[in-house]
Design a protein that fits this description.
This protein has about 500 residues and is an alpha/beta fold.
């Protein structure tokens, strides 16, 4: 079994049913299958893609994303979904690391192609608008056998070193997570899942795309999260029943003037911690549940969620999903008793093979079959898990990982910078925002506007610090390590001053 055969089974059961709603457009399961095969044939016969080849998928949310995704898989290749907010130099790193010689993209991102081909001369790109308009005729497709054990997706997730690592997910990993989610969310063919978050994100890839399609449900693809009222109008128009999103969207919903009767039966919060105040305000305003869950790309990605029925504990990431084990362990792999904080560890069919071409990083992340998440948590006496801190020094901006080291390395490239350290500060709209602390060379000066402009030219906008605080010297411990705890304290004092 593989993901493509799973989709074929859904097509056979629902050939004329709408698989995707996009504005006033409806794409049936049969049409989706035909377009998927056309993409696969073109990749295979024209671009020379073979089983196991990596193919980049660099698109904003659009209907073409879905047949492109499954078309790559049908060709026997491996999908490398790429964050469409990244700058070309960041994309080039991922393509080179993955060894991807083919990139599916669109006209909106085409301005970055010259830089990408300069960095990777072997790269061939295909604009999906051309393909969708029928300008490119694909020859006959030759079927490719793929099994559950074969690699399906490499999702790049940044590490504390600042260099992205490719989490290797098999067909079996993703199908396992889809089945677990189907059971705990009680997803059926009558459901319609609203997709407004980026589909390159592992949360949407599984819950927003693969889950509805593999159970024969429908995707309501939304163009933008703003304003919430227009999102809700589309949700009403298409009778969407499930809405996965991030905490910031649910915060906005609680303050927006929305219609009284919404067709939703549940909303799911993922990708970032859900503030208790948001949950409380939401629960007072809406009759359907807001369910918090937890996951990470390395676990395909869903690990836990609060139950649809029964007790949902505020502040908790809930219980392990079906057929997934979760424990709290110390640094030596010992399972800790309830109530004692330690590292949250995951085991199950959803756990990645490892990191692409990074055996040392894989060895750090996988121990005796357990995935070490890097999150500090505890389990209560009822079996619910609560995250207390992050072991890795990571920020979550709109639910997307930002690693300070990567931003710091860019800041250090600016003339006059002596020291740099980036931390996260709370932000009511985005969850967190990067804040940079900088000291300059003796006798020198650095202009904040010029520095931020430089950083913005090098990395995605959401990674750029909101502001820069200049200090004579950054606080360090006895071994010379910058004390981020002291910087967080300073930021908190400035925020309350």
């Amino acid at each position: 079994m593989n993901l493509v055969l799973s989709l074929d089974r859904a097509v056979a059961q629902n050939p004329k049913k709408a698989a995707i709603f996009w504005g006033e457009c409806e794409i049936s399961y049969l049409e989706l299958q035909a377009e998927t095969t056309r993409v696969a044939a073109y990749l295979q016969q024209v671009l020379g893609v073979r089983a196991g080849d990596r193919v980049g998928l660099w698109l904003k949310n659009c209907p073409e994303f879905i047949p492109a995704l499954f078309g790559i898989l049908q060709a026997g290749a491996v999908v490398v979904p790429i964050n469409n907010f990244l700058k070309p130099n960041e994309v080039a790193y991922i393509l080179n690391d993955a060894g991807a010689d083919v990139l599916l993209t669109d006209a909106g991102l085409a301005t970055g192609i010259p830089e990408l081909t300069a960095a990777r001369p072997s790269l061939k790109s295909l604009m999906l608008e051309q393909f969708g308009q029928g300008n490119l005729t694909a020859p006959a497709f030759v079927p490719v056998e793929r099994s559950e054990a074969d690699l399906a997706v490499i999702i790049y997730t940044s590490g504390t070193t600042g260099r992205p690592k490719g989490a290797m997910l098999t067909h079996g990993n993703l199908m396992h997570n889809v089945e677990s989610c189907r059971r705990v969310l009680e997803t059926i063919a009558d459901d319609r899942i609203a997709v407004l978050l980026p589909m390159f994100h592992s949360f949407m890839l599984c819950v927003g795309v693969m889950l509805p399609l593999l159970v024969g449900a429908s995707i309501v693809l939304l163009g933008s999260v703003h304003p919430p009222r227009s999102v809700m109008q589309e949700i009403i128009h298409r009778q969407a029943t499930i809405l996965p999103a991030i905490p910031q969207f649910f915060r906005t919903m609680t303050h927006a003037q929305l219609p009284d009767h919404l067709p939703l039966r549940m909303v799911i919060s993922g990708a970032a911690p859900l503030p208790l105040q948001v949950l409380e305000d939401f629960s007072k305003k809406f009759p359907f549940p807001l369910i918090e869950g937890y996951g990470l790309s390395e676990a395909s990605p869903v690990v836990t969620k609060n139950p649809l029925h029964g007790v949902r504990k505020p502040g908790s990431i809930g219980l392990p999903i079906y057929d997934v084990e979760v424990t709290i362990q110390d640094d030596f792999g010992n399972v800790l008793p309830d109530g004692q904080p330690g590292e949250l560890c995951v085991r199950g069919g959803n756990v990645m093979l490892g990191y692409w071409n990074q055996p040392a990083e894989t060895a750090k992340a996988l121990r005796n079959g357990w995935l070490l998440t890097g999150d500090i948590a505890y389990r209560d006496s009822d079996g619910y898990f609560f995250i207390t801190d992050r072991k890795k020094d990571m920020l979550l901006v709109n639910g997307i990982n930002v690693y300070p080291r990567e931003v710091e390395e860019i800041i250090y490239q600016f003339p006059g910078v002596k020291e740099a350290s980036v931390i996260g500060i709370p932000d009511t709209r985005k969850g967190e925002q990067p804040l940079a602390f900088v000291s300059v060379n003796e006798g020198g000066a650095v202009d904040e506007t010029a520095l931020l402009h430089f950083v913005r030219s090098k990395i995605a906008d959401y990674k750029v610090p909101r502001r820069v605080v200049f200090l004579p010297a950054l606080p360090r411990n006895a071994t010379g390590k910058i004390l981020k705890t002291a910087l967080r304290d300073l930021a908190a004092q400035q925020a309350t001053a």
